[in-house]
């Protein structure tokens, strides 16, 4: 959820809260939970199949076929010319011999007249017959082919649904091909300071780096066994070029960017497939999602908040077991919730000397909101959000409350879509 990054930032602020001999502390906790689909397929499918295909493979095959045809034609031409070569040599020899016979038949006076008076040199010259050679046929530039089955099994899956073919959902991604603009060398000036004999000098120094832009458009489609479309899209973000910027140096880099291009092609392919898989799972899958937040406890010199520490320990264990042992996880979370709710009975937000003062009260409320979120308990959460809404909160606490409000709004929509 988007509230995650906010919680981490707010934790530092909580850590500084002081109330006489007690202070609120926070510890970053990461746990996994199953996010409900926003648009579930009904009835829930039991199986899915995933595939990756490339729209450019047809063009690749055409280019390869033309390449093979051109090579075959070049070889045929070469063999034909080699077969004709001896006859062409003989024809040149025969022609030269005949011309020499005619030349030798001329008188010396005629030869001198042609050369010196008429300025003509009619001495026969043997025709040059070039030896045949094979024409070089350059291979075509093809878009990269992949092991499409491996790509599908690695990156395309629907959480909460088993892989199988019986009445399965068909999940297909179509690659349009990696595309990159020509690389160029970019020059930037940077000011550098040098000190010689205690004299400071600032000089502008040229730095050079390689730049190119790249993209890999893709589309995806999920259909049921009857080929009825469930979800399909061609994310616009995949058509936008991203910038590659190489490391800067004082010497001009090589224009051989083949290694960088290959690295960006692989990264772009993997990143885009992950984005697609998240889109699909967010909509129709039961996506296993990681959540990071701050779980709060109270540090006190006289151990007067051992109950809050006990709740912290129980909750921490419950969150970590949520996707491995849900039943036991809920028991531990309920144990923590009970302790927190009992502590709230002592809440006195106007008394800074109270054991459960304003800071501790707010911390407990946020702990409960995270616990209720993990357990999908929106009713209890609504009551806490209303209470927080009536309190005089700091700006950071207001932002945290608003983040929870958005998270619970999304949760309610997903629960309603799934009939919960």
Percent of residues in helices: 40-55%
- SSE order, as H and E? HEEHHHEEEEEEEEHEHHHHH
Portion in beta strands: 15-25%
C-alpha termini separation? 20 Å
- Poorly predicted regions are 8-20
- What is the total tally of β strands? 11
What would the principal axes of the Cα set say about the shape?
Answer: elongated
Structural class: alpha+beta
What is the mean pLDDT? 91
SS summary, helix count: 10
Strand order of the largest sheet: 3-2-4-8-9
Largest sheet: 5 strands, mixed
Instruction: Report the radius of gyration as a whole number of Å.
Output: 39 Å
Please specify the SSE layout and strand pairing.
Blueprint: H1 3-14, E1 22-35, E2 47-54, H2 57-105, H3 108-117, H4 148-155, E3 162-163, E4 169-175, E5 179-180, E6 184-196, E7 199-215, E8 218-223, E9 229-233, E10 242-245, H5 258-284, E11 287-300, H6 306-320, H7 326-344, H8 358-375, H9 378-390, H10 395-417
Parallel strand pairs: 2-3, 2-4
Antiparallel strand pairs: 1-11, 4-8, 5-7, 6-7, 7-10, 8-9
Helix pairs in contact: 1-10, 6-7, 7-8, 8-9, 8-10, 9-10
């Amino acid at each position: 959820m988007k509230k995650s990054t906010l919680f981490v930032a707010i934790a530092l602020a909580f850590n500084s809260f002081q109330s006489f001999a007690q202070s609120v502390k926070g510890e970053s906790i990461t746990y996994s939970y199953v996010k409900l689909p926003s648009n579930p397929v009904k009835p829930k499918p039991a199986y899915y199949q995933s595939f990756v295909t490339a729209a450019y493979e047809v063009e690749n095959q055409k280019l390869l076929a033309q390449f093979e045809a051109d090579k075959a034609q070049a070889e045929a031409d070469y063999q034909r010319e080699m077969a004709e070569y001896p006859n062409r040599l003989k024809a040149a020899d025969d022609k030269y011999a005949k011309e020499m016979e005619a030349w030798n038949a001329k008188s010396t006076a005629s030869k001198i007249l042609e050369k010196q008076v008429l300025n003509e040199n009619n001495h026969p010259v043997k025709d040059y017959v070039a030896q045949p050679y094979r024409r070089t046929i350059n291979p075509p530039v093809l878009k990269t082919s992949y092991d499409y089955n491996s790509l599908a099994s690695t990156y395309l899956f629907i959480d909460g649904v088993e892989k199988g073919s019986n009445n399965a959902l068909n999940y297909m991604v179509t690659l349009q091909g990696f595309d990159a603009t020509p690389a160029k060398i970019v020059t930037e000036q940077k000011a550098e300071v040098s000190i010689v004999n205690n004299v400071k000098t600032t000089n502008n120094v040229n730095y050079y780096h390689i730049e190119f832009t790249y993209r890999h458009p893709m589309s995806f489609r999920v259909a049921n066994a009857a080929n009825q479309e469930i979800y399909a899209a061609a994310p616009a973000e995949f058509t936008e070029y991203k910038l590659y910027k190489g490391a800067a140096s004082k010497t001009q880099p090589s224009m051989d960017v083949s290694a960088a291009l290959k690295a960006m092609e692989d990264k772009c392919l993997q990143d885009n497939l992950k984005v697609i898989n998240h889109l699909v799972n967010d909509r129709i899958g039961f996506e296993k999602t990681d959540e990071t937040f701050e779980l709060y406890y109270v540090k006190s010199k006289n151990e007067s908040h051992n109950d809050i520490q006990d709740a912290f320990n129980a909750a921490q264990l419950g969150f970590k077991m949520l996707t491995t042992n849900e039943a036991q996880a809920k028991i531990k979370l309920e144990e923590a919730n009970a302790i927190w709710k009992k502590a709230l009975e002592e809440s006195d937000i106007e008394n800074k000397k109270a054991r459960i003062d304003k800071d501790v009260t707010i911390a407990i409320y946020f702990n409960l909101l995270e616990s209720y979120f993990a357990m999908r308990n929106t009713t209890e959460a609504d009551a806490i959000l209303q209470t927080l809404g009536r309190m005089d909160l700091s700006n950071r606490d207001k932002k945290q409350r608003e983040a929870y409000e958005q998270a619970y709004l999304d949760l309610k929509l997903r629960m309603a879509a799934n009939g919960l």
